Amino acid sequence: MLLQDLIPAALDDWLYHDWVLWWLLPGIAATLIAIIAWAADRRRMRRSDPDAVGLIAWRDISFWSTFAALLLLLAALRGWLNAS
Fold this sequence. Notes:
By secondary structure, this protein is an all-alpha fold. The protein has helices at about 5, 10-15, 20-45, 60-84. The radius of gyration is 18 Å and the shape is elongated. The model has no long low-confidence stretch (mean pLDDT about 85).
């Protein structure tokens, strides 16, 4: 059974628009990265040993992935409005 047999026709048409592949899916991925980085930074701020130094700058990753997610999702919204 092919993947195309499992996806309804309306969803199949929607999924292969350029704005979905180039803007929406990367925007969703950046949002997930931002949420994970925010949770890791919150965990870092509440640790019991404040002098322990981490290797990853979670605050920076959270900020930049939130910024990228905002731009990508706004571009996806623009593409969706122009596609209609």
